[in-house]
Hints:
The chain is an alpha+beta fold. It is built from 13 helices and 7 strands. The strands form 2 sheets. A 5-stranded antiparallel sheet has the order 1-2-3-7-4. Helix 9 (230-246) packs across helix 10 (248-259).
Amino acid sequence: MPLTPDQQAEIDAARGESQQTLRATVPGMEAHLYKAHEVLDHGFVRVIDYMGDDSAITQAARVSYGKGTKAVQNDEGLIRYLMRHWHSTPFEMCEIKLHVKLPVFVARQWIRHRTANVNEYSARYSILDREFYIPQAEHLAAQSTVNNQGRGAVLQGEEAARVLDMLRGDSMRAYDHYEAMLSQDGQDGLARELARMNLPANVYTQWYWKVDLHNLFHFLRLRADSHAQYEIRVYADAICEVVKDWVPAAYAAFEDYRMGGAQFSARGMDALRKMLAGETVTQESSGMSKGEWREFEASLKG
């Protein structure tokens, strides 16, 4: 289980406390506060704090644009306008702080999103738990023959069992050696900051991750996409469920324009105009590469 009894008791105690406040609160987010949403085999995402709501976005926009927003009839319409025209600063008025438990190799992908504040569990000061991400059999896939970053067919039978045995065995063996190297129980062992180098990339770490809504949407657009690696996508999916309860109007606009929409290059737009005019367009006549054409066709199919 992702949570120990002590951690669950701490969460229950935090949720049992309540304080009066004059700041904006969102019932949907209040229900999420401190709760752990389980992800993968030992991971979780939980909301520690948040600031702002849908009205904070429109409030900031009206301060910034004044008379320019008078044609917009309501807050939802204004939010859709801001999303449609790629405005960013109004969405930066909302922030969220998450506690995330995740495998190290997922964390190294995640940290590429540098527009956030991060404080990670330190293996220099503390000893990491014996917890590793071991994929379910249905997520064991071979390398894609089309996409250098993607997965191909799922491994079956003996091959899947062989890979799982190696993953489990290597993980446990590495942790055994990690423990044996540590300076504890009176022996002259290795410093924690050095012993940690022996741990595999599937060991779990934790961090607090604070980000504004604009940059969170950018993260979700990339990581909740069907082409993202499964192990980070499930975290993004869990966060999506939180965000839609936090800023429902903004999330609906994000889903419509970013997740459900498509962006075309100049060549793509030219090809689309010709298709609408009844002309036959091929990859060769479009001027696109094979990869561009494949992505263009995928966008049209939805």
